[in-house]
Amino acid sequence: MANQGISKSAHKLVPQDSSSSMVIRDVVPGKIATFSVPFLRFGLIKFGGRGTLVKLKTGNLAVFSPVSLNSEAKAKVQQYAQASPPGNVRYIVAPDIEHHIFLSPWAKEYPDANIIGPEGLPEKREKDPQNAGTKFHHVFTPQNKHDMKISAEFDDEFDYEYMHSHGNKELVFLHKPTRTLIEADLLFNLPPTEQFSKTDDDPNGGILTRIFNGMLNTRGDMKWHKRFLYYGPGVADRKGFAESVRKIQSWGEFDRIIPCHGDVVEQGGSRILAQATAYFKDK
Fold it and tell me: Which of 3, 135, 170, 175 is the most exposed place for a label (fewest CB within 10 A)?
């Protein structure tokens, strides 16, 4: 199935036939499912991509970092929506200014959904005729982040922080019932083994891919991951970055991290976050 409703420049980053390469998995059966796909950053580096579907206690659904809306993805959404209690897709989240490629197809398919994203993204999308026209219902800014409310049902199940000091303007969520952190570009867990598992491509193949796989993983002391965050996404405002990290840590312990890039972390999530952001500890 060809990807519809995305810009021409995005076609070199994602496969044209997502049905043959997407891995759909119940991470927490009946509550959280993931849609893992191949993704090439800059068309060269194997990062992988991932969307996440969460069923709220009310039955309504939230989608984070939507990926290609193929027939298999629609079937999974329908399965979750029909399960007791029945619900609908009520929230579609673009978790930063980069993870929005497939926002339009999802918004058109589920017109009752609230579209959520960071400042700057609505304007960025309006500049591209193929992305223009999607209405955002909740837009996070540094000024409103402390007072932002999504809805009673959403806020009952999620803690969230807008990391405006992150280079990509990152939104991070903790699903409280399952203690699952959902994020886009805050932490990576490369190589993207699951995301390339239905392709003939080696997730470790290519010199640039091997370099990033060696840097952006959750193994050992995470030395290069720490340096990447400190001198990369967090460099412009390290104090603000540190404040956001402390806010996330104030939510308590969690094991699972669902990143957009790389494999899902099932153990030691809180420790991994602390390790990766250790350079910001005293900021």
Answer: 135
- For the domain made up of 8-140+158-280, give the CATH fold: Metallo-beta-lactamase; Chain A (3.60.15)
User: At a CB cut-off of 8 Å and minimum separation 6, what does 261 contact?
Assistant: 39, 47, 48, 49, 50, 185, 188, 189, 190, 192, 216
17: its two tokens = 């036939």
CB-CB neighbours of 179 under 10 Å = 16
Q: What is the bridge-based pairing of β-strands 138-140 and 256-258? A: unpaired
Four-CA torsion 20, 115, 112, 39, nearest 10 degrees: 0
- CA dist., res. 177 & res. 120, Å (int): 31
Which of 213, 212, 233 has its CA nearest to residue 279?
A: 233
State which residues of the chain have pLDDT below 70. Answer: 1-17
Note whether 276 and 222 are within 8 A (CB). yes
- Calpha distance 283→280 (Å, rounded): 5
